[in-house]
Queue: 2 jobs
Job 1
Amino acid sequence: QVQLVQSGAEVKKPGASVRVSCEASGYTFTGYYIYWVRQAPGQGLEWMGWINTNVGGTKYTDKFQGRVTMTRDTSISTAYLELSGLRSDDTAVYYCARVRTCTTTSCWFYFDYWGQGTLVTVSS
Amino acid sequence: QSALTQPASVSGSPGQSITISCTGTSSDVGNYNFVSWYQQHPGKAPKLMIYDVSNRPSGVANRFSGSKSGNTASLTISGLQAEDEADYHCISYTSSSMWVFGGGTKVTVL
């Protein structure tokens, strides 16, 4: 069955960097984009960007441009999110989610599976 | 891109029907039939409930339905059950591989 399994909770100091992993199983990893979405405590969902797991191309939202890096290792079906220059307002649960890559005839525009979430706490 | 507008909370009694609105603009909800809805229980990951405005993935109860009129999409839960108490989020694809998210709606079963 399809699974996205994320790495465990992290506690970081302001200014530090964090890397969160998302290991995929049960499907062809390179057939789906991986998106990263975060949720601050008591808040709604906020998307951060995506990585095309096939070719490695990325797109980041303006808010995170310059602080975020998304990568992947196709040999182990794992995507990574790295966020630098952490601030207290980066404290959130970070989710990975997949979206199927477009074919020549079809595209899909929804997140059908999500990881379990990784809590990142930024505190001095 | 501005966020989609959802009511902060909606409530109903067991067996009743409720509707959650999700208002965007002519650049997102009004221009694309790519609105999806997600249910999120406390401490859990979101779960896909509706995609492409009105399609239900297999395994989702048929009391959940979606629709759209103009710039507003809606999620209706018919025959409300206690297990439907959760947060619900709408998401719309927009142009240039961009997405816009709603602020989430808390559904309370009275």
Job 2
Amino acid sequence: AQTVTQSQPEMSVQEAETVTLSCTYDTSENNYYLFWYKQPPSRQMILVIRQEAYKQQNATENRFSVNFQKAAKSFSLKISDSQLGDTAMYFCAFIFNAGGTSYGKLTFGQGTILTVHP
Amino acid sequence: GAGVSQTPSNKVTEKGKYVELRCDPISGHTALYWYRQSLGQGPEFLIYFQGTGAADDSGLPNDRFFAVRPEGSVSTLKIQRTERGDSAVYLCASSLENTGELFFGEGSRLTVL
């Protein structure tokens, strides 16, 4: 079974600063995807960034980037130039790819509450 | 609309009652997922449909919970004899089968008194 661990229940950052959210996972699989989702108070889960395990290059999406360390099973999210709208709960998530279009379930971590202060 | 739609947004019921929660996925998405999220926690997997069939229902906590997707589109999560511990936000998500990327609805908040 796969597990996802987020060891930081809460984080805070000043507007325009950089913050890094940590995530580790445990799996025996080799073909999988990792995601960071953002959940603002409105409840809707929004995809922030995704990383394919077979890619060595770290994914980036505007102000969001990841540090993917496959051997260490670590997947951290870096938010640059933090904005007030980044305030939300952030979840790290894992999904196994059994091959082709066959996927397992998306497994989430416990979440990290990020507060951006003006 | 273009997104995943869930109804009702909020549901308050009494202990022992029967509840149905509905999910309308993004058109063309073959995979549909149900998750349960308690306050301050990560979503907990319940069940996953590929088309009309349940590909993985290992997350359903007991036989009071049941979900259907008869035509491979809309899904209904059914909870019998509700208990106070069932109170949570129930999230639905859908995906194209070849991406693994899930699109979530806003959830249905269930409160059992």
